[in-house]
Design a protein that fits this description.
This protein has 192 residues and is an all-beta fold. The protein has no helices and twelve strands.
């Protein structure tokens, strides 16, 4: 008989004697978006409420936001935003797309509830800034809260926001004589 993947059965020799198919089954092409206006820098993805939000950062300081249902591949939202360093998080019932404005360097948030919304709400100015950030991160940090962290050359700032995008708390660290290039933000749960 034939082995899984369509190759002839036999001893494992490390050499393929016939063309093989990948081991993955039921693989589908999901979340495909039309051609983009610039080169892709990275993609950020969040899942929640049974749908997926993909944020594709482009080289021209914009990003493409695509919200889709992975079961049906139905697009719920497809839009372009003039923000860079874009990240996405699902908190409560909303996706929050967070990035730095290409116009004024504010950190802005755009939210989308996949059960009720047809367009992104926002922008909401989360942090007013002067100067471009080196890195930006976002994570869910409560049932419906989220936290952003951003780094400039000498400062790391973290802000926790509620579901409405209002700041709940802030934390700043300033470092002299060094350059901060990256920052991370995550949710840690302790049980027991």
């Amino acid at each position: 008989g034939a082995a899984a993947g369509g190759a002839p059965a036999g001893a494992a020799t490390g050499v393929l004697s016939a063309e093989r198919l990948p081991r993955a089954t039921n693989a589908r092409d999901l979340g495909r978006i039309p051609d983009l206006a610039g080169e892709v820098v990275y993609a950020a993805v969040a899942c929640g409420g049974g749908v997926v939000c993909e944020v594709v950062a482009l080289q021209n300081d914009t990003c493409r936001v695509h919200v889709f249902d992975p079961d049906t591949d139905q697009t719920l939202l497809l839009t372009t935003l003039a923000i860079h360093s874009a990240r996405v998080v699902f908190a409560g019932s909303d996706f929050w797309v967070v990035g730095q404005s290409s116009a004024n360097d504010d950190i802005q948030g755009f939210n989308f509830d996949p059960t009720t919304d047809e367009t992104l709400a926002g922008p909401t100015t989360l942090v007013a800034l002067v100067g471009r950030v080196n890195d930006l991160a976002v994570a869910q940090t409560g049932a419906s809260d989220f936290t952003t962290a951003h780094a400039t050359s000498t400062t790391v700032r973290a802000n926790r926001f509620n579901a409405a995008g209002s700041v709940q708390s802030s934390f700043n660290v300033t470092v002299a004589g060094t350059s901060i290039e990256a920052v991370a933000c995550w949710l840690s749960r302790i049980s027991g």
